[in-house]
Design goal:
Blueprint (H helix, E strand, L loop, with lengths): L9 E7 L5 E7 L1 H34 L9 H29 L6 E3 L1 H16 L4 E6 L4 E4 L1 H17 L6 E9 L2 E8 L6 H4 L11 H6 L6 H11 L3 E7 L3 E9 L3 E2 L8
Parallel strand pairs: 4-6
Antiparallel strand pairs: 1-2, 3-5, 5-10, 6-7, 7-9, 8-9
Helix pairs in contact: 1-2, 2-7, 3-4, 4-7
The structure holds adenosine-5'-diphosphate.
The site of adenosine-5'-diphosphate has 22 residues, from helix 4 and helix 7.
EC number: 2.7.13.3
Enzyme class: transferase
Protein name: Phosphate regulon sensor protein PhoR
């Protein structure tokens, strides 16, 4: 720490200059940390402030009866849909803000059979019979972590698979053991993602095609949330995709996160 600075951070790195000499580089990144903190606080505050007015607007829109003014019915429908979408963006931003400032999760048993069944049901509700949805669960273990956050991460991947797969396609949700732990994956036969986009996919609001994503009701924050939830569980996200063929999103959990299936009160 630099003298007199409570939150200062200096990054040190050693640069080899030959056989016997090294250069020590000290880089003061305190101001970057403070900027990052300001950005986080700003996003969080704006999201909080937007929540109440949005709830009011949404509430009044629900009260209006399209039959009173039939010529305005399509407009009213669009306003309701957009206010709902804005509400979802605000909720996702608040979730991201919380995840970004959180350093660890309160560990609980996450019963995987029940969670997988829920994820499948949610995907089926979104698909409305347009896709074949298969669940293959052979891991026979539960997870240790935050039930709420893992639910949102795992169901986000399944809902993306539905949203980015044309009608008639297949989606397979898997929960399997692997040598280093267990893997949850979602494979689809959808649009796929060009390789040049893969590295940036988990950035906030990053989209391969904005119009397609908006049409399918996304907020652009789903994969960011997935990435943060996995980080908090020391799990890795792997993405394999081929345009026109489909994608597989896999979450690799280490042994320390696995529990033999059992009662809720064991942990
Ligand atoms: P969005 O709300 O836009 O879906 P996400 O963060 O969930 O936001 O995803 C970011 C982008 O990644 C999407 O806009 C889409 O272009 C791409 N994507 C995510 N999942 C898939 C998938 N299963 N198949 C094809 N593209 C995907």
């Amino acid at each position: 720490s630099a003298p007199g600075q409570a939150n200062s951070q200096i990054n040190l790195s050693l640069l080899p200059l030959g056989d016997h000499e090294q250069l020590l580089l000290a880089h003061d990144v305190s101001h970057l940390n403070r900027l990052e903190q300001t950005r986080r606080d700003f996003v969080s505050n704006v999201s909080h402030e937007l929540r109440t007015p949005l709830t009011v607007i949404h509430g009044y829109l629900e009260l209006l009866d399209p039959e009173d003014v039939p010529e305005l019915a399509p407009v009213l429908g669009e306003m309701r849909a957009q206010s709902k979408r804005m509400g979802q963006i605000v909720e996702d931003l608040l979730t991201l803000s919380r995840l970004e400032t959180q350093h660890e999760v309160v560990d609980e048993r996450v019963p995987m059979e029940a969670l997988l069944a829920t994820v499948r049901k949610e995907a089926e509700a979104l698909s409305q019979g347009r896709h074949r949805i298969v669940l293959e669960s052979s891991a026979g273990v539960d997870l240790l972590g935050s039930p709420k956050d893992l639910h949102s991460a795992l169901s986000n991947l399944a809902s993306n698979a539905v949203r980015y797969t044309p009608a008639g396609g297949s989606i397979t949700i898997r929960w399997q053991r692997e040598p280093a732990g267990a893997v949850y994956s979602v494979s689809d036969t959808g649009f796929g993602i060009p390789a040049s986009h893969l590295a940036r996919l988990t950035e906030r609001f990053y989209r391969v095609s904005s119009s397609r994503s908006r049409d399918t009701g996304g907020t652009g924050l789903g994969l960011s949330i997935v990435k943060h939830v996995l980080n908090l569980h020391q799990a890795q996200l792997q993405i394999q995709s081929a345009p026109g063929v489909g994608s597989t999103f896999s979450c690799h959990f280490g042994m320390a996160r696995l529990l033999p299936p059992g009662n809720n009160d064991e942990t």
